[in-house]
Structures are given as C-alpha cells and as structure tokens.
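Sample A.
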Amino acid sequence: MTSTDSPARGDNATGESRPVSWLDSSGSPSRSAARWGRRRRLPHLVAGVLLVVLCVGSAVWWTTSTQDRVPVLALAKPVPLGHVLTPSDLRSIDVSAAPGVALVPADRAANVLGRPMATSLGAGTLLTPDAVGAAVLPAVGRAVVAVVVKPGQAPPELAAGASVTVVVTAATAAGSSATGQAPGTSWRATVVGVAPVSTDQTSVVSLDLDNSVASQLAQVPAGQLALVMQPVGGER
C-alpha cells in the first residue's frame, strides 16, 4: 500500500534527511540566521540606550532645578504698616528667585525681627529688604486715599495688606462729566489700614493706589463704593 504521508520537515521526497534552512551542513546555525538574529536585537539595543539617556537627563534636570531653589522669608499672616515683626509673622519657603530680585534669606531672619514694617503686606508675600524699616508710604507715583465704607460694602475680613478692587456702585456727581464716575468704574489698590468709626458701624479704609487715579477715587461720595478682596499677591 502506497503511503500518503507528506515528507517530514528536513526530509526530501526520497526520505533522505536534509538540513533545515537555519542550520548549515554541520548542524550549526547558519551565518544568515545569525545575521537575522543580530538585526532583531539591534532595535531593542537602541531603545534601551535611549531609555537610559532619557532617565539620566531627567535626573540631571530634577537635581538642577532643586538646587536652584533657596529658602527665603515670607509672611505667615497679613502685617500692617508699622507692625513690629515677630517670629510668628514669618515662615520659610523655598523659591527659585529670578536674577536681580532682592529677597531675605531664611537664615537672616534675625536681621528683620524686631523691626517695623515699612508698608502693609498680605499673608504669603515674599519679604524684601525695603519692606522693613522706615515707612515708605506713599511711594513715588503712589497715593493714599481714605474711603468710608458701610456694612456690606467690604468683607469683614478686610485687613491691612489686602489687595482689593474699589468699585463705584452708584452714579456720582450727577450732571458733572468732569468729576462724575459711572457705576462699575473700578481701581486696584492695597489696604493700608482699617479704622472702625466709634459712632456708627462704618469704617475708614486707607488705600494705597496709583497717584494718577487717586483724585478720581477721592471725589466719590461716601456710601457709593464697594471693596472687593483679590487673591494675595495680585497686581495692583
């Protein structure tokens, strides 16, 4: 009976054994098979080298950025003009200071403790050397204006150092285009101080703002302003 089985792998039609394609006549891997294996390994080697380079570069970047950060002094709470600094007013914070920015290093806290504030600053503000010492209010190009606010026209948390937007809530100086301020007119300012009036529930708030708009704010009648607190460190 004639067999219908197909020749086995490595055997020819006569049943004689023959080497498979990846083996040479001696039974060892052929050169072409070795080259093929090397070609398969090459992309993996390149990928491995790139991964190592990426990891090393990331480590160097992280180390460099960390070393550039230095501990400096910041305010732990709002401090008004003239306030004498105590340890509880300060905290240390690590920052990457830009060249030319004058800050007080954390290890020089003794140089500012016991000295009065030269201006009013809010919590979280980085302390600078010129913020401590003789009062510098108003600074060149700035002015201090006092406004009267009634209950509901300013947050009860308002304190010296707060950044605020002063908003006109009603038409002022009706019929006078020279001095009148339309509702919605606003200015950015920093609170210098808050003094409650003993005779009623109103308060007098001293505001530090740009000298060019101080006269406009000063002409707004009492009771026609609202103070909106802004994030600490916001632009004036």
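Sample B.
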Amino acid sequence: MPKVIGGSLVAHRDEVRSRVFAALREQLYERGFESVTLTGVASAAGLGRSSIYNHFPDRQALLVAFVEQEAERYVAELDAALAHAATPIERLAVFGRMQLRRLAEFHLPPGQALAGALDPAAYRRVAAHADPISGRLERIVADGIAAGEMAAEGAGGDGTVLVAMVSAALSARRVVDVPPDELDASVESAVRIVRRMVSPSGDEG
C-alpha cells in the first residue's frame, strides 16, 4: 500500500496532486506535452510509479485535471485583475497581458494539434475551460463598443470579428517565444498593437 503523505487521505491526495502538478508544469514549460510521461512526472514529483497511477490512469487524465485546476485559478486571478481596471480599453490591456503571460507559461499543442494529442472526450473537457475566458473578452469588447472605445466590427456591429482577431493576436506563440529578458517588452508591444487594432481611430485608445 502506498505511503500516506500528510497524515490523512485527503491531505495525501492534495499533496500528491500538488507535487504532480508542479512537476507537470515544469515539464510543459521545458519541453511540451508531447514529451510528458506519467513515469517521468512521478519521478520528478518524488513519487513512486504506482502512486501516480492511483490518481491519474494516463497522461490525458493528468492533463485534464491539471488544466481544470489551472483554469479555475487563472479565472479567479483574471477577474481580480479586471476589477481594478477602470475602462474597457484598460481591461483589454489587462486581459491581453495576462493571456500572453499564460501562453508563455505552458507549451501545450495549439488548436487542432491538441485535438490530435487527446481523445475526443478529453479534448472537449480541456477546450471547455476556454469558454469562461472567451466570455470575458466578449464582454470587454461589448463594453468597449458601447463606450465608443472600440470599433463595432462584425455582423450587426456586435464585435464578433474584433473578438476573433484579438483572440488570434493573443494566441500568437511568436510573441512569447523570446528570451526571458525580452518577454516584458514583447508582451507590451503586442498589447499596444491590440489596443490600436480595436480603436475606432487606429490609435492606442
């Protein structure tokens, strides 16, 4: 029977997940999901091979659990940051910075590549966590259009095209795949471009 960490089964589960997710996060950052194995994550987390299989039957289950936890944490942090921005254009800048820094943290296959790496059920669970984030961008753009800070692009002037273009810009890995000492400047450049892109006058708003 695996050794119980932390004195209780609940504490043991939380500690195992914490160690495993920390190890997975580092491996995703260093080399991407394609190279992740349960055995490698268990070793990096200081756990036995059987211990990790008791919690995650395969690497897809591990990724889904990790994304679910990270998404919950990220959405809470995003909402807290957005609450301190006074105007829609300022909220867009906050959103853009956080999205790009999040992109820099993880090397998951994008879009269809991720769909190919996961079975359909696992992919749907991972993709579902983009919905709350997309909803926040849609609200920012809608508020920006209503305030006259953003261009009313898209069918019916509802900002559909604008949301799609901003989403694409904030998903560009080339913005964040730079040396660490250049990341801040690259992120700020991208945010300035996004602000100009949404502005009715073509400036930064």
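B remarks: Residues 59-82 form the longest helix (24 residues). The chain has two domains: 1-57, 67-198.
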